[in-house]
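Can't paste images in this forum, so I'm doing it all in text. The chain is below; anyone willing to post the predicted structure tokens underneath?
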Amino acid sequence: MKNSIERIYPDSIAENEILGRETLLLHLERYHFAGKHLVKGTVADIACGAGYGSALLINDYADSIENITGVDLDEDAIAYAQSKYAHPKIIFKAFDALQFQTPHKFQNIISLETLEHLPDPAAFVKHIAKQLEIGGHFIASVPITPSMDANPFHLHDFTAASFKKMFADAGFTEVLSIKQVQPYKISHIFLKKDKRVEDMRKNILLYYFKNPGKFFLRIRSLLQDGFSNKYIVAVFKKL
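Text version of the structure:
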């Protein structure tokens, strides 16, 4: 399976794919963070991708987990997950997360690096909240440095404040959060030394011409954060 800016297949990352390996480590850190803050019971892993996160959870945090339902829109990714990470306590389903619902509510919902891809992330949070038990945990993450300019698959830029407000508006309270920092070398991007950058926006200057606000947002980020991407991972409790 091909790794891309939006998909990671751990076994397919080459030794020289520095960004790919760094990104995978960030994803694994998020899942470990989630695993340490689960309410004992069931888990829904929404936008589970290739399934390695669900596998990590069931292998490393089994005492807290009754079962996991992994959901992703990509049928190929789900087929890969079913083949590679089959486990009696994991069910992988190809399903649109915006319409996902089950007759039984979950104690935990995990959705990492998902919200920035959705046309209406606030509506998604409110919809998924209906699938969660009162007192359950919703664990989510987003980039909090600009990403729309470089990543054509991202529909929103977030700050930590705007991210947290979505959950507060949907009836959650924050339990705790962490931030992740991923430094990058500009040479890896412009010289395309890593397969992950092949899917980056092709004509970013034209994008900035049509969206000057995003250009100034990028400049401000470079001045504040340098050449680094930042992310927030948070645990929210349903009230």
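Residues 18-35 form the longest helix (18 residues). Residues 10-238 form a domain with the Rossmann fold fold (CATH 3.40.50.150).
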